[in-house]
Amino acid sequence: MDVDEQTIHSSNSTTEDSSPIKISSDVIDSKPNQYFIHEVYNSPKPVKKETIGKIQRFHVQVSRDNNANEIKKFLKEYTADKKRYFFHFTSENLFKTFSIVVNNIFNRDGPEIIYCTERREFLEDGDLIKEAIQNQHEGRTNHRGVIEHLWNLGYAAEDIIKNIFKVTKTMDMEESLKLAFIKEIGITHLRIADGLCSLIQMSGLLSRLCIQAKMQSVD
Fold it and tell me: Which residue intervals make up region (Disordered) (predicted)?
């Protein structure tokens, strides 16, 4: 099992005693082992592991139509009894389905799964996002460093794309270019929601924004 598990000692999480998955308001980005559970419409891709410093992050896809069986297979392969795991679900339906499966296949000595409901905010890095978008507006190509920096800090692709959209909406630029940017951002957001979460995906978006800016400057 390729998981650097953490043995259970104590937990500050709060939940109903009868719930198989504990719920915590802790920020998952600060945990050593992070499991991001994504629901996809097509066939799920294999579990993807990322290592960011001392953090191990796993992206897990489950399909909408057969998720109970996929969840059962994943849990048996990637969890062990009396170990602690930190999960973040992209929807409440996924959380409910996981709870049912965990309740059915594990006893009280099974793995401890903690649902971290909170994600790290971009309060300190809003200017970095603005810098990246400004680079595209001006047609520059030296843009990857900003996104790569945020990625290495541990921000998830979903967080980055949401904040790129938020910053783009408020930036001072030509309306036609802003709409073109928002369209490209929306396409990338859909891909991320479908489980295509990678630094290459984010860098590709910025390249396309740069192309859009150059095309409109020519027009």
Answer: 1-23
Q: Quick one: 27 and 88 in the same domain?
A: yes
- Count CA atoms closer than 13 A to 171's CA, side-chain side: 27
In a domain, 151, yes or no: yes
pLDDT in tens, 122-141: 544 556 677 667 666 565 55
Residue whose structure tokens are 């270019």:
177
Residue 155 maps to a domain: yes
Cα(134)–Cα(131) distance, rounded to whole angstroms?
5
d(CA 144, CA 132): 8
Half-sphere exposure of 8 (CA within 13 A, CB side): 18
Domain span at residue 132 reads: 126-218
Task: State the angle between helix axes of 92-105 and 67-78 in degrees (0 to 180), rounded to the nearest 10.
Answer: 60
Q: Of how many residues is the chain composed? A: 219
